[in-house]
Amino acid sequence: MSRRDKRIDQLKPEIDKLKGTDLIAVYSEGRTEKHPVGNLSDYINGELSGSTIWVRGDGTDSAVLVGSNSTVSGDNSISSGLNGDVSGNNSSISGGLDNTITFGNQNFIGGGTNNGIGGKGGNNNGVVGGNNNEVTTFSYECFIGGGISNTVVNGQSGSTILGGYNNTLEGYEFGNSSQIIGRYNSIVGGISNDIIVTDSSSILAGSGNTIDRSEKSSIIGGSLNLIDGDDGDDRSENTIVGGSSNKITRTKRSSIIGGENNQIGDSGNLRVGIEQNFIAGGHNNTIYGEGGETNNVSIGGNNNRVDNGYNTTIMGGTNIVNDNGDGFGDNNSFIGGSGNEAKGGLLNNSSIIGGIDNKIQNYNTLENTILIGGSGNTIDGSQISSAIVGGDGNVINGYTAGVNNVVNGKYNGIFAGRDNLIG
């Protein structure tokens, strides 16, 4: 006889409280049979090999494990956990302590402590293991596996949390309706991560990361990173990998890898057409503008900024492209340096490489210009195919007062020296 073998009369006072016509489900040697209490004399006089004794619950065709101190008021439901409570229909609690299923149908809790499913509807949900995990309020086909204090709430469907602590998948409840506005999302591990009102997005580990209204987006590790679509159309497919306090807002198909306080998008008025931008590492680097910012790249550096740019690249240093939105630029590049700046007008195919406080600026057309090294050098006005290499305080000026959209300088060059002027 195994240590689990028991005589029925060793397991009851519960059985003694039943009527002779009450049914008990008896599981023995691989099969389950229903027996009226009054017909169990054969069992009472003998030993039950591996048997588990169930008694009828309060709901129709429901059952409670003898000795579990559980309550089952839902129909076709069962509980074998200690202090379990099942009021939902066609639902079950298997093992664990102080687990609860309220409302909803076809829900399941397997083990763990103080886990719950319920609250204004919700069907086909599951919680397995862990402590203080909850699926609630119009959530369907959702699952929590382990972890502590994880929550699926307010209109999620087909979403999953695996492990971690204090993670949340959150939809939004419109009045008393049961509208689903969060589907197929997942959080795996981590602490205090949150996915809100979005579909098909995921957070893997990290802490304090959030995806809000940005479909098919992901955050992998890091801390306090944010992807925020802010109710815009087609603000999706964004990614942040690692780093801290990085943000992607009101954009699509953009990525940030590592670094701190980097941002793609805009924190002001709602924008459109900001997409396919990339920041890798660095600190306080920003790509944003009024719309249409596409294929811009910032790698490393500190306080680099691309505003209203297309196909622009910044590598290291501390540089600014099109500050304050004074025009649009295509195919510009910066490599290293500090305090270098390009802004204004139509700025295309131009570069600053290294140096300090160098400027390419105009309010008309400036194309194919390059400024290499040096300090305080400036290419100003309307220029095509002009260059300054090295030196200090050199200027190529193509601006004529009162004349707009006219190219006033071509093929000019200053090589080294100081305070030289063309224009």
What does this structure look like?
- The chain is mainly beta and 423 residues long.
- The strands form four sheets. It has a 23-stranded mixed sheet, with no helix packed on it. It has a 20-stranded parallel sheet, with no helix packed on it.
Kindly summarize this structure in a few lines.
With 423 residues, the protein is mainly beta. It is built from two helices and 51 strands.
Secondary-structure blueprint of this entry?
Layout: H1 8-11, E1 23-28, E2 31-36, H2 41-44, E3 52-56, E4 63-65, E5 71-72, E6 78-79, E7 85-86, E8 92-94, E9 100-101, E10 108-110, E11 116-118, E12 126-128, E13 134-136, E14 143-145, E15 151-153, E16 156-157, E17 160-162, E18 168-170, E19 182-183, E20 186-188, E21 194-196, E22 202-204, E23 210-212, E24 218-220, E25 226-228, E26 239-241, E27 247-249, E28 255-257, E29 263-265, E30 278-280, E31 286-288, E32 297-299, E33 305-307, E34 309-310, E35 313-315, E36 318-321, E37 328-330, E38 333-335, E39 338-343, E40 346-348, E41 351-353, E42 359-361, E43 365-367, E44 370-372, E45 378-381, E46 383-384, E47 387-389, E48 395-398, E49 409-410, E50 413-415, E51 421-422
Parallel strand pairs: 4-6, 5-7, 6-8, 7-9, 8-10, 9-11, 10-12, 11-13, 12-14, 13-15, 14-17, 15-18, 16-19, 17-20, 18-21, 20-22, 21-23, 22-24, 23-25, 24-26, 25-27, 26-28, 27-29, 28-30, 29-31, 30-32, 31-33, 32-35, 33-36, 34-37, 35-38, 36-39, 37-40, 38-41, 39-42, 40-43, 41-44, 42-45, 43-46, 44-47, ...
Antiparallel strand pairs: 1-2, 1-3, 3-4
